[in-house]
Amino acid sequence: MPSLIMVVVLDPARVPDLLEAWQQAGAREPAILESLQVRVKDGVDGGREDFPLFPSIREIVQRSERPSKVVLVVAEHDAQVEILLAAARNILGGLDSRHTGFALVLPLVRTEGLHPPIP
Questions:
Q1: How far apart are the C-alpha atoms of 44 and 16, rounded to whole Å?
Q2: More exposed terminus of the chain, fewer Cβ within 10 Å: N or C?
Q3: Is position 60 within any domain?
């Protein structure tokens, strides 16, 4: 079954290396989206005493925005998912750290517009 792999890369400078590794692993037509990592400071980073009870998105973003990238690719089968995730872990330095990024894998019921089509 095809799957959508979404990798949020917190260091945009690593995206070219990720794309190259994925191309070597057989990934087809990856897409890149610009994104912002929005972080609300917690007790570890300085407390929430001055944070409004009902903040607006603008207040949150002004407090902590950091550019990031979301890389999307469709994997044709489970074995390819594992190969692409292993490449992402290798390039990004692991996905278990707060400062590298994270990945999501979603099963796809239907795809359209991929060339060649995934059966």
A1: 32
A2: C
A3: no
Residue 21's domain is classified under what CATH number? 3.30.70.120
* Domain around 82: 3-37+67-107
Distance (Å, whole) CA 96 – CA 2 = 25
Name the token pair of 1: 């079954």
Q: CA 32 to CA 18: how far, in whole Å?
A: 11
For the whole prediction, is pTM greater than 0.85?
no
Residue 100 in domain: yes
User: Is the distance from CB of 93 to CB of 13 less than 8 angstroms?
Assistant: no
The count of domains in the chain is 1
User: Distance between alpha carbon 44 and the CA centroid of its chain, in Å?
Assistant: 24
Tell me if 17 sits within 8 A of 23, measured CB to CB: no
pLDDT digits (tens, 9 = 90+) for 29-72: 899 999 988 765 554 444 555 666 777 766 665 556 788 999 99
* Cα angle 19, 21, 22; round to 5: 65
CA distance 11 to 110: 31
Flag whether 86 is in a domain.
yes
